[in-house]
Structure formats: C-alpha cells, structure tokens
Target: dipeptidase E
Amino acid sequence: MNQRNLLIVSTSTVHGKGYLAYCEDAIKSFFDGIEEVIFIPFARPGGISHDEYTSVAKTKFNELGFKMRGLHEFDNPKKALEEAKAIFTGGGNTFVLLDQLINQGLIDVIQSKVSEGLRYMGTSAGSNITGLTINTTNDMPIVHPKTLNALALVPFNLNPHYLDPDPNSKHMGETRETRIKEFHAYNDQIVVGLREGSWLHVSGNKITLEGPLSARIFEKDKTPYELQPSDDFTFLMEQ
Amino acid sequence: MNQRNLLIVSTSTVHGKGYLAYCEDAIKSFFDGIEEVIFIPFARPGGISHDEYTSVAKTKFNELGFKMRGLHEFDNPKKALEEAKAIFTGGGNTFVLLDQLINQGLIDVIQSKVSEGLRYMGTSAGSNITGLTINTTNDMPIVHPKTLNALALVPFNLNPHYLDPDPNSKHMGETRETRIKEFHAYNDQIVVGLREGSWLHVSGNKITLEGPLSARIFEKDKTPYELQPSDDFTFLMEQ
Model:
C-alpha cells in the first residue's frame, strides 16, 4: 500500500500576498509533527542561487515553526533524502529541476521514500514533477533533460498556474487549453489544470482539491470540464 | 559565402486580420520569381492533420500567385527539398516540428540547401527553428526531441510572439523576460524577441527588421534593449 502524502500546490504566491501566505494553514497542518523540512531549490527561479532560494523558503518555514535546510547543503543528498521526514520542492524552471534530480540520481530515492510516507510538498515546478511527465509544463526549455518522465507520485499530469483564456487578449500565441489539446494528440494521460490559489492533497489513494477555486480536467478526446473542491477526484488515482 | 535568404516571421496572423494578411506584400516580394513553394506542415497547430494544415497555407499562397505542395505529400521528402526552390515552414508546436525534422533526417538537407540559396520562410515555430536552438520556444514540450539544437540558419536564438509584461496582470507565472533571463543562466547566445507583426529578413549576412514594431534584444549579463527597424542589426550575424 502506497503511503504517499503529498501537497501539490499550484503557485507559491498569489497576487497581492506574501510568499506561501495564502496556504500557510495548509502547510502547517501538512507538516504537523515534523521538526525539519528539506528544501529542494534546484528549480532556482530567475537563475538565483540555491543559497538565495533556500533562504527565502527557510524564512517562511521558520516563521511557521519548522527547521529547514537546502538539499544542496548536504555532502550526500541521496542519504539526506533517505533520512528526511519531509521535503518541499520549490518552483522555478521545471526542466532545470528535473535535469538536476536526474543528474544527481535522486529520482528513485524520492519515489521510494514518498511511497513509504516521506511527506512531499511542491509548488509550481515542484508540483509539476509529481506527475507522470513534465510534458505539460508552462516553462521555457532552457536545458534539455534526457527524459521528461517525472516522479510519477500520482498517475496523471499537472498543469500548475492554469490560466483561463483571456477573451480580451489580442495576442495570437496559443491558449493553455489549446496547448493541452495538442498534448493529447501525442499523449494519453489526464491533465489537471490547477489554478493559482488551489492545491491537491493526496494521502494514499485519497485525493482532494483545496482552496476556493475549481480545477479544469483534460481527458483525451473529451471536452475539458470543471471539478469543484467538493467533487470526488478519486478517479484520478484509479487509472 | 552563405547565400541564405530568410523571412523569419513572428506570427502567421495578427489580431483581427486573416492568415498571413498583414505581411502578404513581403511574402510576394520574398518569393518573387518562384513558381512553387514547399510547405512544411509538421508543427500541426492544435493537432490538425498535415493535409488540413497544408490546405490552409495553400489557399493563401495560391491567392498570392504561388503553387504549393505539402512536404508530407512526397514519397521522398529529402529529394523534394533538394529539388525545391523555396520552402515555408508553418507554426504550431516547435517540439513536434523539430522532432519530425530530426526523425525524417531533414536537418542537414535544409541547412545545406538554404546556404546555397533555397529561400526559407517561417512563421512562429517555423521561425523558432531558424535559430541555434529551440531552448527559447514558448511552446509546451508535448514531445521530447533527442536534441533542442535547431537549423542554426542564423547565429542567435529567436523568441517569436514576444510578449511584453502586462502591468495589470494578476497571474504569477513568469513573464517572458524572466524566462529569457533564466535561459541566460545556462546559455550564452543572443535572443531576439520578435513581436507579433514583425519579421526579420536575412540575405547573406545582411539582416533587417521589418514591420512597424521594435524588437527586444536579450544579451547575457546585459539589460535587455529595444532596436527599431531603422537600426543596424548586423552585429547579430557577426557572432
């Protein structure tokens, strides 16, 4: 039985609020009883350093009552993950994040430890990699990982920062919905469009949508549809 | 001496106008004297078929006085390109486009024929692949090409559909400028942000920006800056 316990958060920050402020109650509850959370800073947004990024996350986690160290601070990151009780993977560039995890040989250890109960929280890129693949990231492919297969902690794909089409836009780039439709011309798995302000909580095979917004579900050859936090998301775990 | 002759167009369509309507004079002039243009439909926007996509392009090119066939209609696409006088590569998904060109073994023949004078027009994804790599595409990585190295018909990278930050946006996804800054944490080449309504015309080592708008130039470790159509872009070809 898979003991996974995941908090899959669309964005670290919503407009007009501080870093992780809007979901801090959920974070406190998710990591309840944990002394130290290991931060994975590899997605390094805007190219900032691992130290700088860890400092941002640590300030907030300390405020919430948790110790925090960056995974890059350990001589043996694999051993650090084997001994960790909880990890938080921050957002930034999903390609850079996945590439680092692959190159440091950390995919397997995260998968096996999560299935044994290591608590995993991700935001944005850190959420994207909980899916089967990162083929539905919004990020620019600034590096080229050898595979787009991700952690597969859940049996579907994520699109964090899901954005509805803007009816007033004069820009001709593809909408998010068009892009995910294109994805389904080549791939079969369900994609969950997770809007900013939403997160999924996965505990074993139980899954709930939290936050005030609905999520948009994309299934191959079906019209996309909305599910509310009160709806049953169990089918996502049963594929 | 490289005989390249390129029309690198940001978008096929600007808001409120028909397909290729806003730049049709430039297209007529670029392909002047050519009887038939070969269309490369591999980027297939929204997952439409190669036939459907070719039909869209052909209707417009016929109206402008050119014959057109899709590259997928030939039994031997490599031979078709060797014998072609002009090609037009349409937009869609840049990853799908590059993957097809690689898998069909067409990269080398396009590179060598373009250097001998085969006229090449691209829009959007078809423009993106004229750069050194597709690491600065806006597209979703719905397939995983074995490399992101592109046609390198010019010695820099492109960002078509370049979009200025929206000061009123409440969305927390990265701006295009932030993404390109991240690109420069891992890559050195200049990136040209080409706005919708703009195109570059490259003839040998001469390069001009056309259309009514400025372009945004991103150099590693420099503040991005604007260049007008009247400015000298020669430095881009001299790297």
